[in-house]
Amino acid sequence: MTLPHHLLPGGVLDELAAGRGGADAVARLRSAQHSKTLLMVRTLTLLLGEAAHPDLPAIEAAYRVLAGCDPRARAAALGHPPVAAWAFGTASLLRRGSSAPYPGLLAAVAVVAAVRSGTDADLDVPLPPGVPGRLDLPGLGTLAVPAGATRASVRCVDGRLRVRCAGERVEVDDVRAAGPGWTPLPRMGFRRQGLPLSLVVDTPGWQHVPGVRLDGPRTDHGWRHRLDGTWRLLVDDHRPVAEEVSAAMRVLIPVRAPRAGTRSGTFHHAFGSVAMSHPPRDVRTAAVTLAHEIQHLKLAALADMFALLEPGPTELFYAPWRTDPRPLEGLLHGAYAHLGVARFWRRQADAARTRAQRHHAQVERVRWSRAVADTLPVLHARRRLTPVGRRLVDGMARVLDGWAAEPVAPDAAAEAGRLLAAHRARWDHQHAPTG
């Protein structure tokens, strides 16, 4: 499996620095992420060989099957976000001399690639420790196996599966349809004005990622209707955001909602996945969440291509969007994400259909624009910024300068100011020195 040389033209970097980029930038970032995953997979196979791991024959055979699969099918299997996160986490553990919880997942990934490409293959698949009675095929679904089994023999023929495990057999002729012993992952697809959003709903796949534990619902119940409205809003009123989400997002990870509001997040080494709690009825909440999280996805992938910060001592800073002090990297990420939030509300104010909606959108636009504007000088003063990191901060500043002359209702600006001041006052009180 050969790796391409990745270049990011200056114009694309400047677009990303402005918080934009579009589908082209996302495609470049995705390609670089795929190369990173390939490097991690090769690294872990070499490290397992040095350690004479008992599953080494199965893992090396899986690697050979992956190498022989159609490149698009291989990219889809290895690019499934939990797999990419697993590859990075497992290689990191092995590099440090620690034991990896489930290196045999590579064999399951090879099964997925073989099925997707229609490649005939016979694979010995180690079963995951601590997860009895199941074999997860990442991005496809779950096979039920005997609880005491430790290995499965999987034959892939023309996209079909023939599985032998502890004396039992499971046959899957169509991986998209549920059948005896087989549960496919839920999938959702949306299309609006020719722009698609295709998602796999995946919580179980994350149980194999070192250091990641998700406690959330394992169903797509209620998501289809809510995301259908969200996609209509994004495509109709926020087309540039929708184009990036369409190009980047592949996996939705449902998580439990907090007592108030919503919860969302991304994982640095799992490009294309977004964790979200079920949003309220207002589709704008889910839409602004995706506008926020796509920024994190882009910046995390950019940070893998270019160092944005030099190593240095831990410093903690006030962030107008958090209740806890943030390290410099977190402050940079937060500023970049909230520039996207401010841009969302800037467009939403133009699309508002009522005076109340316009007022709310203007308040949010001013609030988050000012929050980012107040944070950028703190970032700019840090010597740890690399040239690319400084280019990023300067690009965000130019965007805010361009917005500054646009009119905003005085009452909306005043309300945004009060919200920012109240947040800072609470933060100062919470973090005031004691004694």
Structural commentary:
- The chain is an alpha+beta fold and about 425 residues long.
- Among the domains are: about 40-185, no CATH class; about 305-435.
- The termini are far apart.
- The radius of gyration is 23 Å and the shape is globular.
- It is built from 13 helices and 14 strands.
- Helices cover about 50% and strands about 15% of the residues.
- The strands form four sheets. The protein has a five-stranded mixed sheet. It has a four-stranded antiparallel sheet with strand order 1-4-5-6.
- The model has no long low-confidence stretch (mean pLDDT about 95).
- The protein has helices at about 10-15, 20-50, 55-70, 70-80, 80-95, 105-115, 225-235, 240-250, 285-305, 330-350, 355-380, 385-405, 410-430; strands at about 120-125, 135, 140-145, 150-155, 160-165, 170, 180-185, 185-190, 195-200, 250-255, 265, 275, 315, 325.
List the helices and strands and how they pair.
Elements lengths: L9 H8 L4 H29 L5 H13 L2 H8 L2 H15 L9 H13 L3 E6 L7 E4 L3 E4 L6 E7 L2 E6 L2 E5 L9 E3 L2 E6 L2 E7 L21 H15 L1 H10 L2 E5 L8 E2 L7 E5 L5 H23 L10 E2 L8 E2 H24 L3 H26 L6 H18 L5 H21 L5
Parallel strand pairs: 9-10, 10-12
Antiparallel strand pairs: 1-4, 2-3, 3-7, 4-5, 5-6, 8-9, 11-12, 13-14
